[in-house]
Amino acid sequence: MKKNAVFIFSDDQLGYKFSDTHPFNQKRLTLTVDLLKEMNALSLSDIVAPRTATEEELSLVHDPQYIEIVKKASLENSDTNIYESYGIGTEDTPIFPHMHEASASLVGGTLTAVDYVMEGKASHALNLGGGLHHGFKGRASGFCVYNDSSVAIKYMQQKYNARVLYIDTDAHHGDGVQWSFYDDPNVCTISIHETGRYLFPGTGNITERGSGEGYGTSFNFPIDAFTEDDSFLEVYRTALNEIIESFKPDVILSQNGADAHYFDPLTHLYGTMKIYQEIPKLAHELAHKYCDGKWIAVGGGGYDIWRVVPRAWSLLWMEMNDIRTPEGGLPKAWLERWSKESPIPLIPTWMDPNPLYEPIPRKAEITEKNNQMLDKALFLLRQQQSYKKHQ
């Protein structure tokens, strides 16, 4: 019997750990799973253990030489110049024991999600341990050793001959995935992110449109720092609706970083929990409209692991399963259990307190700049569509 959605998870995913003080903290997975179980939204029958990606599968995107370097560094656990030239052993992506195995497990989780959806065993699949969108062919970057989304897309192309729409709403530009398919006309990448003027990785301009046969299948929407919910969602809804109508994918893969929130310590956006309720809602709707329901979702960034990530990712899973957001707030037992460990007071409700912050004096100016950016980006899309029509 086909399941509505499966949740890819095992404790092995917690092994992707750089250090006790590194901002990328997989304890957020534990907090999210516990929250969903406490509210009876996640049962053992929903959970599927991830497999480990093989070296052959990793090589769909990553250089075999790079994979060997990661394996060697995992054993030696020493920071040398040779490792740093491959992006590991750096401040962002330090070496840790069994790094290769832990990274391959996260990739394998996304491949497990792919097989469940593409083989018709589930309409949707969620791998919150995935979403490591900064990994490159031969280099780690931005906390990402291997790029699970890029591997999964290439895997879907080869095994299922799929035309893939990749949607990235992480506050950081989805650079690794974009560059992996920059010249591929059968993969469309959409990234809505804080402008690179202020934030890593500094890329993701609207002029990055693809190359060769892939020209016009890469879309970037760099929003201004301090962007709030309404402007973020206006860009997201307008862009996604127009692009998917043009591209007509077989499957949607969405990256759901939770770092566009006001509380996130590494970014400068002013989102609230409202965007994390609305982002998956539209992805879900469009998956059923265009892709026979085929929707694979992964995690990503998110560095306020106590107040933001568990609520945001729980809302994603609830949307996948058509579970209404409870009105009574977060489960009391969950709040009591984790408030003892949390260094900051937990938010007891699903939505954020209103107001969450002082009014932004430049709100109208920021919104107008985002609208101008959106209009310019979509003008390029329409211009290209018109050119193709008259060829």
UniProtKB/TrEMBL annotation:
InterPro entries for this protein: AcuC, HDACs, His_deacetylse_dom, His_deacetylse_dom_sf, Ureohydrolase_dom_sf
Pfam families: Hist_deacetyl
Domain Histone deacetylase: 22-317
Alphabetically ordered keywords of this record: Acetoin catabolism
Keyword field contains Transferase: no
Transmembrane segments: none
CDD domains attached to this UniProt entry: HDAC_AcuC_like
Pathway where this protein functions: Ketone degradation; acetoin degradation
Family: Belongs to the histone deacetylase family.
UniProt name for this protein: Acetoin utilization protein AcuC
